[in-house]
From TrEMBL:
Belongs to the GMC oxidoreductase family. One of its GO terms (molecular function) is oxidoreductase activity, acting on CH-OH group of donors. It comes from the Bacteria. Residues 650-680 form the 4Fe-4S ferredoxin-type domain. Gene3D superfamilies: FAD/NAD(P)-binding domain (3.50.50.60). The keyword Transmembrane helix applies. Pfam families: GMC_oxred_C, GMC_oxred_N, NAD_binding_8. The chain crosses the membrane at residues 21-39, 51-70, 77-99, 119-142, 209-227, 233-258, 265-285, 305-326. Keywords: FAD, Flavoprotein, Membrane, Oxidoreductase, Transmembrane, Transmembrane helix. InterPro entries: 4Fe4S_Fe-S-bd, FAD/NAD-bd_sf, GMC_OxRdtase_N, GMC_OxRtase_C. This is Choline dehydrogenase-like flavoprotein.
Length: 994
């Protein structure tokens, strides 16, 4: 988080370009060197495999060192000198070999008939030219001063000069001599202050020892081609010289690290490369080498296998010792537990670059990384590996463009790199562009979570947490709810009359109604039991505890975030409690024989809606502390002419009683005002039907155990297999109801082989037909503060009078969620967040076609394969245009759409751009908390998974009762419909069970 302007002088830019080209060529040359010994017409010349491996290591070491130097010339001009010295040493050693060694032997280069001496002279010419070119580039860059990496002002770690020679243009020779002082380490801006830790000091001692070993290795190579008793083994002099230069480079780098471990610890990266490459190359040579070929040493003639094994053992052991010591040092100095050092460095670099407040940031990058590290360690997501993988990819991605790892690029160049590759990506095909954009999007999410969840950032954006808003409110009392945790459950076999998997909107209601019908119910929940009085204002901590995959549940391509609750009470614990009945037209489509033929009794369903609304106290939230931007929404609807004729606007209906307006609906209401399944339904079930509802938390159901039907009869579910607190258990029951949510229920059926070709029942379209209520917000800046965060999160809605396929919802968020949805990059995003108290956000929610699919992921979780259809995006675009007119009529100064390239609209006339902006799902940011479908109700098993009794086709006692049974999306919030369907289904399940 420093100065992002790039004031690099022309001379330094030329040096940087030269180092990047050289580094890329050397890194390409390393594998080519190895391949030369394995394939091609010149294999005879590459026959001395131990030294070929060393020469490959030399190319890799110097290539990586050149890239590290190019990444930050302000601090690492010394590395350019290392590369120069190594090439000069190559020239000197080749000349020594020409003068004193036997160089008359033939060099078998396939069609080219030449001698070892000729190859050595070519090596002198090549490496000499490289050394000369580097010298000519380094000298003017050094004279250019600290912006280029010079020693003036200590920019490269050396003392400031006060004699004026550097500034007056000292000679190239004197500049190079002065540059040697750059070997004094420069401070690492991403390193913590303070003296080295004990682990870092151990790295320093190891590097000093490594420098000694390298010096001995270099001397051994020289002695090998000079001494009579070893000349035959060292006859391939070009590769012997390369191996000696590898030792020189390793020694120089090891000495540089040992000189100041804290500043130069990142330089162990090239050092490890220089040790690993020869070890790996030698290992690759073993199967393809004549292992008995002599390797004569003073009359002893062991096979060449021994030299290869010694190289593998020594280089491999040194690399392993170095990597282990460095890993321990990184963890000790950075205090990291859950991330690899490479990933933590990527986080540091991202936080330093993406959160750009022009020196007004309140949370240092180190603290941002520490916050994220703690978050990733706390979540339960099976796919948390994905975010760690993304961080690794972000750190290493610059290597593909001839840059060092991301954290080793100085801030201005790092920002330029990110802008070129991510903010304005080339017009690549989607398969090539997508991974690049995904990595930066995930990196941005993690950085913002680490920054804006820190209370130090809140004052700068105008956010006041509820605990400091001066509205004293008692927190919820402990619930009268018995939930068994793994340690309290005895034995490895549970028995029940009915087993319900999932405790959310569908599972809790069906459990209540089945208990009312006299059935004994065992309710299994994968997530933890978190009481409302345990909820806190810590967004990231609550997301980790209350959401099934934290922020990890995403579509297969990581573009589409799918938020679902993962705790006792399911998504009702963390949703906005909005209760809307499904439109009549949507229900009619469900029952249309030409479409889905669900055969739902709409009269009975209407009665179920009414019963659920009474039970949960659903009402219009006129008595709540509302999101204050809602008043502007209503005024804008009227001023734009949309209301009342074209748009029905008003306060939402919700199952909330006496809302206090904390604004934390999505991270759990700590004040007991949301009448969710956790707060209302489950406690009432145990109170109203004592002994009939048993709840077990942290129980991950892995498989439904089934039995084929006899004599052509229906199959049966005879039990479940699950993991409870890490141990395997079994559940035996008469009836099974799957209510784990639209994605998890499909995944469980798929894992159990249900609907598959070899399953116990008929072929069924399990996981198919999945749809969403996709959402895209418009964020408007108003002239004055509205503090939209202070009130019910979703307080007002807009319903088009004529069915349009979309609805409007006002919404607000605490800082992290707002930052993730906020348009803009770098300082623009930072400045937008500083307008937080003046922002008004309204989302357009649009039901999609059922073209998504749930699949089994290779990693064991669920994959969601989804890409919005063009008609879905066009409908969303129409809604956003209409909403934009409303927002400008409400007084908006500007309106922002969250797109990849950042699109800000300043007048109603610019709204015509919106359809073009949203026609590419890779460009506009979309999200949802409302997956629907995948196990649709349909009379025909070719169209759906469950029948009109909510039983899986072909099964007598296996039922599904959650949003996955929706035949098509309903556009409005689906939770009330899920609960109504569960109420509707319970008598059918109770009557047909057994």
């Amino acid at each position: 988080m420093g100065n992002r302007s790039d004031a690099t002088p022309p001379a330094a830019r030329q040096l940087r370009a030269g180092l990047r080209v050289l580094g890329a060529l050397l890194l390409i040359g390393a594998p080519l060197c190895v391949l030369g010994a394995l394939v091609g017409p010149a294999r005879g010349f590459f026959a001395a495999q131990p030294f070929v491996a060393g020469a490959a290591g030399k190319a890799a070491l110097l290539g990586a060192t050149a890239l590290y130097a190019a990444g930050d010339l302000r601090r690492r001009l010394a590395l350019a000198l290392v590369v120069l010295v190594a090439h000069a040493a190559s020239v000197a050693l080749a000349l020594l070999a020409l003068a004193a060694a036997a160089t008359g032997g033939a060099a078998d280069l396939g069609p080219l008939d030449t001698t070892v001496a000729t190859v050595l002279w070519a090596l002198v010419a090549l490496d000499g030219a490289i050394a000369l070119a580097l010298g000519l580039l380094i000298a003017p860059a050094w004279r250019a001063g600290p912006a280029a990496g010079g020693a003036r002002g200590g920019a490269a770690g050396g003392p400031a000069r006060d004699d004026g020679e550097t500034g007056r243009g000292a000679s190239g020779g004197r500049a190079l001599i002065a540059a040697a002082s750059a070997l004094a380490a420069a401070p690492d801006p991403l390193a913590p202050p303070g003296p080295p830790t004990a682990a870092e000091r151990r790295v320093g001692r190891l590097c000093r020892a490594l420098a000694g070993v390298a010096a001995l290795a270099a001397a051994s190579c020289v002695a090998g081609f000079l001494l009579h008793g070893t000349r035959d083994a060292f006859a391939q002099l070009p590769f012997v010289v390369g191996t000696a230069v590898l030792a020189v480079g390793v020694g120089l780098l090891a000495a540089l690290v040992a000189r100041d471990v804290r500043a130069n610890l990142p330089l162990t990266g090239p050092l490890a490369v220089g040790l690993l490459v020869p070890a790996v190359a030698a290992l690759a040579f073993l199967p393809f080498t004549d292992l008995d070929r002599p390797f004569p040493l003073f009359g002893w003639e062991p096979g060449v296998w021994l030299a290869l094994v010694v190289l593998i053992a020594v280089a491999g052991a040194l690399a392993a010792a170095l990597l282990r010591a460095v890993g321990t040092a990184w963890r000790a100095r950075e205090r990291i537990v859950h991330l690899a050092p490479l990933q933590q460095r990527a986080l540091l670099a991202l936080a330093d670059t993406l959160i750009d407040g022009r020196h007004e940031e309140r949370v240092p990058p180190r603290d941002v990384a520490a916050n994220v590290e703690g978050y990733l360690g706390a979540i339960r997501a099976k796919r948390a590996w994905g975010h760690r993988t993304v961080l690794t990819a972000l750190e290493l991605r610059p290597l593909l463009a001839a840059w060092p790892p991301l954290s080793q690029i100085e801030p201005a160049a790092r920002r330029a790199f990110l802008e070129r590759r991510f903010l304005h990506p080339p017009p690549w095909p989607r398969f090539a562009k997508n991974p690049t954009q995904v990595t930066i999007r995930v990196g941005q999410q993690l950085s913002f979570a680490g920054y804006y969840n820190d209370p130090r950032s809140w004052r700068s954006i105008g956010y006041v947490p509820f605990s400091r808003r001066g509205r004293p409110t008692e927190r919820a009392a402990p619930l009268r709810l018995e939930v068994e945790l793994p340690d309290a459950v005895e034995g490895d076999l549970l028995r029940a009359d009915v087993c319900v998997v999932g405790s959310g909107a569908g599972g809790a209601i069906v459990a209540y109604e089945l208990a009312r019908a006299g059935r004994d119910v065992l309710l299994l929940e994968r997530g933890p039991y978190v009481q409302p009085h345990e909820f806190s204002e810590d967004e990231v901590a609550m997301i980790g505890r209350l959401y099934g995959d934290g922020i990890m549940q995403q579509s297969r391509d990581f573009r589409f975030t799918i938020q679902q609750g993962g705790c006792v009470g399911g998504s009702t614990t963390v949703n906005n409690a909005v209760c809307s009945r499904a439109p009549d037209a949507a229900l009619a489509r469900w029952n249309d024989p030409a479409r889905h033929d669900a055969r739902i009794d709409l009269g009975r369903l209407a009665d179920s809606y009414a019963d659920v609304e009474r039970f949960l106290g659903v009402h219009t939230q006129d008595d709540a502390v509302l999101n204050r931007s809602g008043e502007r929404f209503l005024a804008g609807a009227e001023a734009s002419g949309l209301a009342p004729d074209r748009l029905e606007v008003g306060v939402v209906r919700a199952n909330v009683a006496d809302c206090v307006g904390c604004g934390y609906c999505n991270i759990g209401c700590a004040y007991g005002r949301k009448l969710s399944m956790l707060d209302r339904t489950l406690p009432r079930a145990q109170a109203d039907f004592p002994g009939r509802v048993r709840i077990v938390a942290e129980c991950d159901v892995e498989r439904i155990v089934t039995r084929r039907g006899r004599h052509g009869g229906p199959a049966r579910a005879v039990g479940l297999r699950a993991r409870l607190g890490g141990r395997a258990i079994g559940i035996v029951c008469e009836d099974v109801v799957i209510a784990a949510g639209a994605i998890a229920s499909s995944h469980l059926l798929l894992r159990s082989g249900i609907g598959g070709r070899f399953g116990p029942g008929p072929r069924l379209p399990v996981g198919r037909g999945l749809g969403f209520n996709i959402g895209a917000p418009l964020t408007a800046e108003l002239p004055d503060a509205v503090n939209a965060y202070d009130g019910l999160q979703i307080s007002h809605h807009g319903l088009p009078r004529r069915e349009s396929g979309y609805v409007f919802e006002t919404w607000s968020n605490p800082p992290v969620a707002q930052a993730l949805a906020m348009p803009g990059w770098f300082e623009r995003h930072f400045e937008n967040m500083r307008c937080y108290d003046r922002l008004m956000a309204v989302g357009v929610i649009s039901g999609t076609a059922g073209n998504a699919r749930v699949r089994r992921a290779l990693t064991g979780g669920a994959d969601v394969d989804y890409r919005p259809l063009p008609e879905d995006l066009r409908r969303l675009g129409r809604g956003l245009q209409q909403l934009g007119r409303l927002l400008f009529a409400a007084g908006a100064k500007r309106v922002m759409l969250n797109t990849w390239g950042y699109d800000e609209l300043r007048s109603p006339a610019e709204l015509s751009r919106i359809p073009r902006l949203v026609d590419d799902p890779d460009y506009v940011t979309l999200g949802t908390g409302h997956p629907q479908g995948g196990n649709a109700i349909a009379a025909d098993p070719r169209r759906g998974v469950v029948d009109e009794r909510f039983a899986v086709h072909g099964f007598a006692n296996l039922h599904v009762c959650d949003a996955s049974v929706f035949p098509a999306t309903i556009t409005v919030n689906p939770q009330l419909t899920v609960m109504a369907l569960a109420h509707y289904a319970a008598p059918l399940i109770a009557a047909g069970g057994g």
